[in-house]
Amino acid sequence: MSPIDSILGIEGLVIQRVERTKNIHVWANTQRLSACLHCPAPSPRIKASHERTLKHSRQGNQLLILHLRVPKYHCTACNRYFRHRYPGIRARYRATDAYRLEVFEAHEGGVSQSKLALTHRLGTATVERWYQSFVKQRVSELSGRDCPQVLGIDEHFFTRKKGYATTLVDLPLRSSSTSMLRCSR
Question: What distance in Å separates the CA atoms of residue 119 and residue 177, rounded to the nearest whole number?
Answer without folding.
Answer: 54
